[in-house]
Structures
1.
Amino acid sequence: MTSARLLLIFATGACLAATAASAADSTTPAARPRRAGPPPTPEMIAYHEQVMAIYDADKNGVLDETERAVLKDDIDAGTMQPPPMPPGGRGRHMGPPPEILATYDTDRDGTLSETERAALEADIAAGKLPPPPPPPGACPPAGDGTSTTTPAAS
């Protein structure tokens, strides 16, 4: 083999090894970027550590789809507490705010049934209530007057 061919094989191997090492490093919790938002509270950190100790079956520092499903089932069954709320926020999957539940949750079960949600949506449509704000990072609804682009001429 020529030295040029050996050099090419060596360089290709080095690139592949670097790519594999980089991919392995990116799965560790410390290597993943933190999501935007307030820093986690001590309660949130303790909850995360507890969840990882119990549900991270393969101990790789990440919950895969199966591990997350087991956690969700345990939260739904009440054998595991749901995650603590972030500071100043209600967190994800927390349902409507208390003032909405107080008015629209007629059976007082803590959630809005289809009928209760329809009543809420009817009051929003009638202008009795403002619509809920979009989730953080969501695009504004079409036609709200904030667009700066003009349609292309045909």
2.
Amino acid sequence: MEFGWFHDDEEGLTEINITPLVDVSLVLLIIFMITAPMLVQGASVDLPRTRAMNKLPSGNVFVTVDENGDIYLNDIDTPLELTDLEERLIPFIELGQSVYLRGDKATNYGRIMEVMDAITSAGLDNVNLVTTPVPLNQR
């Protein structure tokens, strides 16, 4: 008795060829390894250097101040005013997220403090400053 495509008298495929699966997996791995460093978040800034540096968590709020004093929020490419920044930060209060402030080292310190004040005025109290680590050979 025959059911579907199984036949007793025919020899079916008894082995699975793993080589194409491994090849595709390795190609995808290489593609992701090449493209991952290109996914930089936010505006380009020259951060000051410090000794201590922890890995930045993803999913939090990043506020960037470039060398001209322009303010950017996460991946938004258009500069924001301080009042716009406060309004856009309000939804993050309920989520309890941390704010990571990235300020270019050429930026006026007073501008960084104005941005920090706007962040705390919006109701987010956990503000962290982002820096670039100093290489071990330059310490």
3.
Amino acid sequence: MAKENPRARRLGEQIQRELTELLRRNVKDERIGNVTITAVSVTGDLRTAKVYYLIFGKDGADAKVQSGLESAAGFLRNALSKALMIRYTPTLSFELDTSIEHGVRLTQLIDSVNKPPAPAPAAPEPDDDGHYVDEGDYVATADMVQKSPDAAKDDANGKDD
């Protein structure tokens, strides 16, 4: 596994701050709208930067936002070169950030594994005579219930309880 370049990490953080301000104040493309820059990953040679973004109020990708960011990439790179004052400004590529959905999915998987198992039903015990009595859910229907003689007279006379 390659060791992370500290300069690339610092440059990525600085690019993220600058892009956030540039998108909020200077880019007038209505396709971009409410975009949040979540992370910037710069390669070790500092020539390429992958910009991760989220769209506020929408789930998933939006082709209009992606095309708006790609069309503004040249302007953003030029503005970054003026703000950062580095020899070579990285080329920008934009990618929708899916880390939040991935994190939610992992959390759901972990919760499903950590969920305690349902308690097993207790085994029936024999009564005094050694017979097993089933105490399961038993539902009696109206025709199975025997009415008392007084209740039968009340039904015949049309009285309710």
4.
Amino acid sequence: MGQGCFPNPPMRLSAFIKKTNAQNESTTNKRNHHKKFYGAWFLCHPLAGDSEEAIKANLKKAAELARKLALENPDAVIFSPIAACSFMKEPEDRELALKYCEYYLASGQFIGIILPPGWTESRGCIREFEMAVRMNLGKVFLNRAGDRVNA
């Protein structure tokens, strides 16, 4: 992984993620949290869990968040790769699902990614984040209520 794509090259990815996540979750930008999405956005939501119940809970959270964002942003396309790959089984097909997610993200259709809380604990979300950084896509961080915390 090249360090040139990160704002502070000497910083390790894990430190960069922790710093970015802490900054974005601790300070809500009230001026921008109400802005609508336009264009196509990739919803980067964790799926894996320690149990079947945890996976089902993540599926439900991802679907609810995608629906909320789609209804609040009628001029945008909110793409949920979890929904698109719902025919795959977790954890057996995890690598194949990640391949599909990376293919979708690399398609050039998206102007940015949406990162809800918990994304930093997901290896798949981190891979998608790294890819979005390399592609210079926009990044929107959400708080627990599903509202923007940055522009």
